[in-house]
Each structure stands twice: as C-alpha cells, then as structure tokens.
Design goal:
The structure is a single chain. By secondary structure, the protein is an alpha/beta fold. The protein has 2 domains: 111 residues, no CATH class; 153 residues, Rossmann fold (3-Layer(aba) Sandwich). The protein has 9 helices and 11 strands.
C-alpha cells in the first residue's frame, strides 16, 4: 500500500471504528522505532505498520477484541522473544486508543505535515534510467520530480510521479528545497556539467549523482575548475558505483544501485 494522505482519508471514511496504535517506547532491538504508528479497524483492516510479524498480528487481534461501544485507551507491553515467536530480543510499549472525528482530522493534518518534511529528489533527464529511477522511487518516502527540457519527450510519459518540462532546468535547482538530492541523467554532457555547477554552488545537497564514466568525471573536474570549483568529492560519478562494482547496465539495475547509494550516503550524513 502506498501511504498517501488520499489513502489515509479513504481509510478513515471506509472504516467506522478505528484504533490509533503508536509505539510509545522501545528498548533494545525492535522492528520499528518510537513514534511509529498504524491504524487498525474493528474488523482488522490496517493503515501503516509497526513492523509486521507476530507483534503486529497480536496487536491486530488485541484491537479487534476491544469493546467498541466505549472510548477505550490502554498501553500494552510486549517482549519480542520466544513467547511470541520473535527473535528481536527487545521490548516495546504500544498505546491503543479508539479515535473520533476530531482525532481523524488531526491525524490527516499530522500526516500531511510529516509528508511535507520528505526530502526532495530532483531527477534530470527522462530517459530510460531517469524514468526507471522515478518509478522505483514511487514507493519511497521522497518528493520526486522528473525534469526534462524536451517537451515532446516528457509529455508522453505516463508515470505517477511529478514531471516537469523546463527549458531552463537549472532553475529547478535554484528553487529546490534545502538539502535536496540531485540525480543527473540527461542526454547532454554540457547540460550535465551546468546542472552540477548549479548544485555545487548551493553547498547544501544531500546527494549528487551523475551518469557517466571515469573519463567524464575527469572532464567534469577540468570544466568545473575553470568555473572556480575545485572540490567534486561530493559528486558521485560514475553514479551508483560506490556500493556495487558491476557492469550490468540495464536501467532497472542501475536505478537500484543509485537508490542504494543515495540512501547510504544520506544515512551516513544523518549520523555525523
């Protein structure tokens, strides 16, 4: 299930009695972290997840057994060990409460606010790799925008991702959110270099990746040096190669490597 505000609102409309279940505390190893929440209806329908497995199954059964004629609210503590056929070894405390109309409204606004904090990912170039990337990122918690300067080309793409025709794609960089991720996969080396220059000028990119080779990296470095930029250590070119040494050039495989590389670099920066 793709978790969007529209899907949340439909879930709230379609299910009359719903419980809000949230991890209040986790000790040791657990499937999800403190603050993670999900919704469970009186019939066992769910929105979201607290980690799946026996922990979630038992939670669903617990919710379904509640007396839905009253406004219940309780906390349950679960050891994630042999007793419930899980081997995490930690412990979680989960709050369960029946929600009302006002809480539903609050939840929708909270969800929209949380989604607004998702990192923006700008993909330049709607070719095979760019399109494959956009589609693979559809299920990930990012705001993805696919940008191309070929109107007839990008307008024909039917994908569930925001797409933008722009004759001046570097303008998208200037207007991007702080700490955005940038992936450059255009058909034009000159445009690639220009976009990279605009990104580096911002000095706030969470990730920069560019399709190319070691030879192209050398050309990029020489071109940027003439523009007054000497450090390209943050530019991942050849893209997707920092974690996987492979020569498989199928767009779907390249895309998977790029996403893995991007997530790895973002996590390392978050833990600095």
């Amino acid at each position: 299930m793709i978790l969007t505000s529209e899907v949340l609102q439909k879930f709230l409309r379609d299910n009359k009695n719903i419980a809000y279940c949230k991890i209040l505390k986790n000790l040791g190893s657990s499937p999800r972290e403190k603050g993670t929440w999900m919704l469970i209806s009186m019939h066992g329908n769910i929105f979201g997840t607290i980690g799946g497995g026996q922990l979630e199954y038992n939670l669903i059964q617990n919710v379904m057994r509640q007396d839905w004629k009253v406004d219940f609210k309780l906390d349950i503590e679960t050891n994630l060990g042999p007793d419930i056929a899980q081997c995490c070894g930690g412990k979680v405390i989960i709050s369960i409460q029946k929600i009302n109309y006002n809480f539903s409204k609050y939840l929708i606004e909270k969800f929209k606010k949380d989604m607004s904090k998702f990192t923006q990912v700008l993909i330049f170039g709607a070719g095979n790799v760019g399109t494959s990337l956009a589609l693979q990122m559809y299920n990930l918690p990012f705001h993805v925008k696919l940008v191309d300067n070929r109107k007839n080309f990008i307008s024909k793409l039917e994908i569930p991702i925001e797409k933008k025709f722009s004759l001046i794609p570097e303008q998208e960089i200037r207007e991007a959110n702080a700490y955005s991720c940038y992936i450059i996969t255009t058909h034009d080396h000159g445009l690639d270099f220009l976009l990279c220059y605009e990104i580096l000028k911002r000095q706030d990119a969470s990730y920069i990746g560019m399709i190319g080779s070691k030879t192209k990296r050398g050309a990029l470095k020489n071109w940027l040096r003439k523009k007054g930029v000497d450090d390209i250590s943050n530019v991942n070119i050849p893209i997707g190669k920092s974690l996987f040494d492979t020569y498989d050039k199928r767009p779907e495989i390249i895309s998977a490597h790029i996403i893995s590389e991007m997530l790895s670099i973002m996590e390392k920066k978050a833990n600095l």
